[in-house]
Amino acid sequence: MNRDKFGYDIDPWGSAEVKDYRFLMEKFGIQPFEKFKKLFEDNLYVRRGIIFGHRDFDKIIDAIKKKEKFFMITGLMPSGKFHLGHKMVADQMVFYQKLGAKIFICSADIEAYLMRNMDLEMCRRITAEEYLANYMALGLDLKKINFWFQSNYRVEYYRFRDQLSKKVTLNELRAIYGDISPAKIISVLSQCADILHPQLPELLGPSPSVVPVGPDQDPHIRLTRDLASRFQTEFRLILPAATYHKFMRGLDGGKMSSSKPSSYIALSDKPKEAIQKIMNAITGGRATVSEQRDLGGVPEKCAVYDLYFYHLVEDDKKLVEIYHDCRSGNLICGECKAKCSDLMAKFLDKHQKKLSAAKEKVEEFLEEKNYNEKR
Ligand code: SF4
After folding, report:
1. Do 237 and 103 share a structural domain?
2. Which residue segment(s) compose the domain that 176 sits in?
3. Distance between Cα 319 and ligand 1 center (Å)
4. Is residue 291 domain-shared with residue 177, that is, in the same domain?
């Protein structure tokens, strides 16, 4: 893992685990999201502090209040199954679409090819079947999104990506990313172009934008904002805003990662398979039932509690009940896992019905946009 210029281990291509969010915010100047909480109390991620930080989000609030155009931009990495960690970003897309944002989504197939050794045709299939279909099943209206593959897009985007390279030095990239290679340079500049290019005159022109990210992506955000400020004369770009959400703990206690199926529940996992993963998940329980009755559990250390907290229990009162029952020893882990499994099975059952309908529509969407042409 590379250390960035502040000596903090945070690597967009690594397996960053953040132990102390406050430290991270202080080091990198990420502002607390707290002041916007009242405005978005309906949103579980905001209400529960899962979205914990931002840069420049006031610009988005302004645009919403004045009913001015703004856009949300995000990328997907087509290298594995769509899991509950990815659902957090998809839910935010739906949220912003409902707020009136234009939604820009990039399939980072070139980055997957360069950095993860993926085959481009496989990337196309994963993009369609795993990501776009799940977005649709979760409520995103694909007819209203702007979508592209990094490997196959419009001339203005590639011209802009090349132009960006003029105002960044190799030393700067080394300071941010540590070891740098031609493949990393292409990936980094593509990401900057992904985020900024909707502001080109051929697209929306200068507009406020927001990128929802995990803290591991902050190096990209910082560089993109620096580059935007260096291209004021040519493009009058508005520096993109960003929001930062906490990572969901993996079921095995580490980071939830696409390369470790035991760490996540995919939204296409059969309920039986998901239940098995919940039964094997790490908890904050005690060594014996009697110890747990006496001392209570530790939900803060529990991957099962995270499933309730991030996805399965919308009602705050019910969540608080689970928390106190765990803490007081009223609830023991076997019983709690069974309850969680039941909720998860219901969620997956319902979701997967929508998912199979969505898969057919996604193919139509890609046909219509000519994304199925030979590339
Ligand atoms: S009772 Fe539930 S929330 Fe508490 S530690 Fe056990 S599994 Fe986790």
Report:
1. yes
2. 2-250
3. 12
4. no
Residues within a 6 A CB radius of ligand 1: 283-285, 297, 299, 302, 304-305, 326, 331-333, 336-337
Model confidence band, residue 373 (pLDDT cutoffs 50, 70, 90): low
pLDDT tens-place string over residues 127-180:
999 999 999 999 999 999 999 999 999 999 999 999 999 999 999 999 988 889
Residue 308 · residue 284 · CB < 8 Å: no
Dihedral-angle region of residue 255 (phi above 0 means left; psi in -120 to 50 means alpha; beta otherwise):
beta
Nearest atom in ligand 1 to 303's CA: 8
Ligand 1 center to 51 CA (angstroms): 23
Amino acid at 36: F
Q: Average model confidence (pLDDT) for the chain?
A: 91
Residue 235 lies in a domain: yes
Nearest atom (ligand 1) to Cα of 281 = 7
CATH of the domain at 280: 1.10.240.10
What pLDDT shows up at residue 2?
A: 40
Nearest to 83 by CA among 218, 278, 268, 215: 268
367 occurs within a structural domain: no
Q: Are residues 319 and 189 in the same domain?
A: no
Q: How many CA atoms lie within 13 A of 157 on its CB side?
A: 18
The CATH number of the domain holding residue 210 is 3.40.50.620
- Whether residues 135 and 222 fall in one domain: yes
**The total number of structural domains that make up the chain:** 2
Which of 251, 279, 304, 342 for mutating ligand 1's site (highest number of atoms within 8 Å of CB)? Answer: 304
Q: Is the pLDDT of residue 366 over 50?
A: yes
Q: Say what the pLDDT of residue 257 is.
A: 84
Query: Ligand 1 center to residue 280 CA distance, Å?
Result: 13
**pTM of the predicted model, to two decimals?**
0.90
pLDDT in tens, 24-74: 888 888 999 999 999 999 999 999 999 999 999 999 999 999 999 999 999
| Predicted pLDDT at 18 | 63
Cβ(189)–Cβ(161) under 8 Å? yes
Residue 302 alpha carbon, nearest atom of ligand 1: 8
Which atom belonging to ligand 1 lies closest to the Cα atom of 326?
4
Q: What is the DSSP string of 98-127?
A: HTT-EEEEEE-HHHHHHHH---HHHHHHHI
Please give the average per-residue pLDDT across 277-292, as a whole number. Answer: 96
Does residue 373 lie within any of the structural domains? no
